[in-house]
């Protein structure tokens, strides 16, 4: 009793277990450090703090003081308690010394050592059990006789008197050992089922661990791949920048030479004109008219040439202004060439990125008129399919879809990684995806996605859906750009759909083990249409 009372005093009032790292609040009440810390963390939100035991409130976050004395008391209690709990049973007849008992007699209510068991009564009513200090629990509470049977009707252990004259008279009873063996058998069955369940759980855990490991490996691989891809893009950008800069410098040097040459010619012309101007000034300063006329006559050819040349230049300028100067851009950089170089280079980089991300572009993708349903109109270039209310009256063949407005591509894919871009109509309904050539061409199962031979993305009623083998998944993304990239990795068994909006959105990915070549597949109805952009 004293031990129980001490234990109660050493219990935390929050967790009701012995104190662990006890701390004291300002009100002198003690708690486990982790217990009171959780309470204070909860009170932090309201900034109102109080003791869980006495409800005393504190103005600020209470300081927690370690109670080392209480901690030592708990440790001492735990170290002493196991010895106290060791209630070894001793022989009731060995009064001179404490000899451990090996059996307890329910009839005698005495415990026996090895020597006293050998001389103990062998009568049936002297039932021996494992050493026990609580013999009363082994006896009937009504008749004070040993419990020998089990009443299955009342699910209780009973004595002989209970079965013969007591309230269990006439009930279905059996020996305790037999009942115990049956229940052990039932427990074994339960254990076997639990073992099977545990085995399944272990398999699931292992599968999840492998999935997690694969996820980490995939993330690491993708990180390396895209790091290399971005590095490659950066390097191509630098190369393109260097190419454009070199072109600018080349044009600059080329035009600079022309400018220098023209400047030199103009400087030479300027010197000649300066000399003639000086001669004219000298003539104009001569006072003697005879001298002026004589000198003018001797230099007449030079002055006439200048006058004729000036008139000629004025005439040429007039003609050029009327006809247009073919060399008017000779003194400027060719900006168009640099722009074309930039755009071509960027397009090349983008094509390379698309090839690395989506695969090789299927540029030669055409619609196969031999598979087109009779209510499908194909464009002349076999790139666009539209639904029609008019029967096209194409000949019936084993390859043509009979009951649905569908068409396949003439090209198939059976290896590597490819992508193609399509644009769906804003109105109507349409489906894009892939299908095996063995897809049924007639009946309900010939509809795209309603069989195990086709995978597609469906657009209708302002929403996207992914469908395969009649299993439909409604996607939350609402259609925006209607430009769809379809990426097929045949070997990896992945078919992905991306919407080319701002930003690009991943819509859905199918995973499968492909067993036949795959054709691009299209289905249109209710005035829908699809165009192959690639």
Automatic annotation (TrEMBL):
<feature type="region of interest" description="Disordered">
    <location>
        <begin position="303"/>
        <end position="331"/>
    </location>
</feature>
<keyword id="KW-0863">Zinc-finger</keyword>
<dbReference type="GO" id="GO:0045087">
    <property type="term" value="P:innate immune response"/>
</dbReference>
<dbReference type="InterPro" id="IPR027370">
    <property type="entry name" value="Znf-RING_euk"/>
</dbReference>
<feature type="coiled-coil region">
    <location>
        <begin position="256"/>
        <end position="283"/>
    </location>
</feature>
<dbReference type="Pfam" id="PF13765">
    <property type="entry name" value="PRY"/>
</dbReference>
<feature type="domain" description="RING-type">
    <location>
        <begin position="12"/>
        <end position="55"/>
    </location>
</feature>
<dbReference type="InterPro" id="IPR006574">
    <property type="entry name" value="PRY"/>
</dbReference>
<dbReference type="InterPro" id="IPR001841">
    <property type="entry name" value="Znf_RING"/>
</dbReference>
<dbReference type="InterPro" id="IPR001870">
    <property type="entry name" value="B30.2/SPRY"/>
</dbReference>
<keyword id="KW-0862">Zinc</keyword>
<dbReference type="Pfam" id="PF13445">
    <property type="entry name" value="zf-RING_UBOX"/>
</dbReference>
<dbReference type="GO" id="GO:0005737">
    <property type="term" value="C:cytoplasm"/>
</dbReference>
<dbReference type="GO" id="GO:0008270">
    <property type="term" value="F:zinc ion binding"/>
</dbReference>
<dbReference type="InterPro" id="IPR000315">
    <property type="entry name" value="Znf_B-box"/>
</dbReference>
<dbReference type="InterPro" id="IPR013320">
    <property type="entry name" value="ConA-like_dom_sf"/>
</dbReference>
<keyword id="KW-0479">Metal-binding</keyword>
<feature type="domain" description="B box-type">
    <location>
        <begin position="135"/>
        <end position="176"/>
    </location>
</feature>
<dbReference type="InterPro" id="IPR013083">
    <property type="entry name" value="Znf_RING/FYVE/PHD"/>
</dbReference>
<keyword id="KW-0175">Coiled coil</keyword>
<dbReference type="InterPro" id="IPR017907">
    <property type="entry name" value="Znf_RING_CS"/>
</dbReference>
<keyword id="KW-0833">Ubl conjugation pathway</keyword>
<dbReference type="InterPro" id="IPR003877">
    <property type="entry name" value="SPRY_dom"/>
</dbReference>
<dbReference type="InterPro" id="IPR051051">
    <property type="entry name" value="E3_ubiq-ligase_TRIM/RNF"/>
</dbReference>
<dbReference type="Pfam" id="PF00643">
    <property type="entry name" value="zf-B_box"/>
</dbReference>
<protein>
    <submittedName>
        <fullName>Uncharacterized protein</fullName>
    </submittedName>
</protein>
<feature type="domain" description="B30.2/SPRY">
    <location>
        <begin position="345"/>
        <end position="534"/>
    </location>
</feature>
<dbReference type="InterPro" id="IPR043136">
    <property type="entry name" value="B30.2/SPRY_sf"/>
</dbReference>
<feature type="compositionally biased region" description="Basic and acidic residues">
    <location>
        <begin position="310"/>
        <end position="322"/>
    </location>
</feature>
<dbReference type="Pfam" id="PF00622">
    <property type="entry name" value="SPRY"/>
</dbReference>
<dbReference type="InterPro" id="IPR003879">
    <property type="entry name" value="Butyrophylin_SPRY"/>
</dbReference>
<dbReference type="InterPro" id="IPR003649">
    <property type="entry name" value="Bbox_C"/>
</dbReference>
<keyword id="KW-0399">Innate immunity</keyword>
<keyword id="KW-0391">Immunity</keyword>
């Amino acid at each position: 009793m004293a031990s129980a009372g001490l234990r109660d005093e050493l219990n935390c009032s929050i967790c009701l277990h012995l104190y662990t790292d006890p701390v004291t609040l300002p009100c002198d009440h003690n708690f486990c450090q982790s217990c009171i810390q959780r309470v204070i963390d909860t009170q932090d939100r309201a900034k109102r703090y109080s003791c869980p035991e006495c409800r005393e409130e504190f103005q600020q976050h209470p300081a927690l003081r370690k109670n080392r004395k209480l901690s030592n008391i708990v440790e001492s209690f735990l170290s002493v308690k196991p010895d106290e709990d060791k209630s070894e049973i001793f022989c009731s007849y060995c009064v001179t010394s404490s000899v451990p008992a090996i059996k307890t007699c329910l009839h005698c209510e005495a415990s026996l050592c090895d020597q006293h068991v050998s001389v103990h009564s062998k009568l049936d009513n002297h039932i021996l059990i494992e050493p026990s200090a609580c013999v009363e629990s082994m006896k009937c509470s009504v008749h004070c006789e040993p419990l020998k049977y089990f009443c299955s009707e009342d699910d209780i252990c009973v004595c002989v008197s209970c079965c013969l004259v007591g309230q269990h008279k006439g009930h279905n009873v059996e020996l305790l050992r037999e009942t115990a063996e049956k229940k052990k058998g039932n427990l074994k069955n339960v254990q076997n089922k639990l073992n099977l369940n545990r085995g399944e759980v272990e398999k699931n855990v292992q599968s999840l661990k492998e999935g997690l490991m694969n996820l980490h490996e995939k993330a690491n691989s993708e990180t390396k791949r895209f790091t290399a891809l971005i590095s490659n893009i950066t390097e191509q950008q630098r190369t393109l920048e260097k190419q454009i800069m070199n072109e600018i410098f080349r044009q600059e040097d080329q035009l600079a030479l022309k400018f220098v040459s023209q400047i030199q010619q103009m400087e030479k012309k300027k010197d000649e004109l300066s000399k003639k101007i000086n001669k004219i000034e000298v003539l104009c300063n001569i006072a003697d008219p005879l001298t002026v006329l004589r000198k003018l006559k001797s230099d007449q050819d030079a002055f006439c040439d200048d006058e004729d040349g000036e008139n000629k230049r004025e005439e040429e300028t007039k003609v050029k202004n009327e006809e247009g100067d073919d060399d008017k851009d000779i003194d400027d950089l060719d900006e168009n060439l640099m722009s074309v170089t930039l755009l071509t280079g960027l397009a090349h980089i983008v094509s390379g990125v698309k090839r690395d991300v989506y695969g090789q572009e299927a540029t030669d993708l055409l619609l196969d008129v031999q598979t087109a349903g009779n209510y499908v109109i194909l464009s002349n270039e076999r790139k666009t399919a539209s639904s029609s209310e008019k029967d096209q009256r194409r000949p019936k063949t084993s390859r043509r879809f009979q009951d649905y407005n569908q068409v396949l591509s003439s090209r198939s894919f059976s290896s590597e990684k490819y992508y193609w871009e399509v644009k769906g109509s804003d109105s109507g309904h349409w489906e894009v995806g892939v299908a095996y050539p063995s897809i049924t061409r007639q009946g309900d199962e010939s509809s795209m996605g309603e069989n195990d031979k086709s995978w597609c993305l469906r657009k209708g009623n302002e929403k996207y859906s992914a469908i395969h083998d009649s299993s439909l998944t409604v996607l939350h993304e609402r259609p925006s750009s209607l430009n769809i990239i379809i990426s097929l990795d045949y070997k990896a068994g992945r078919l992905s759909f991306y919407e080319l909006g701002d930003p690009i959105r991943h819509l859905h990915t199918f995973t499968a083990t492909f067993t036949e070549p795959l054709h691009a597949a299209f289905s249109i109805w209710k005035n829908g249409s699809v165009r192959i952009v690639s």
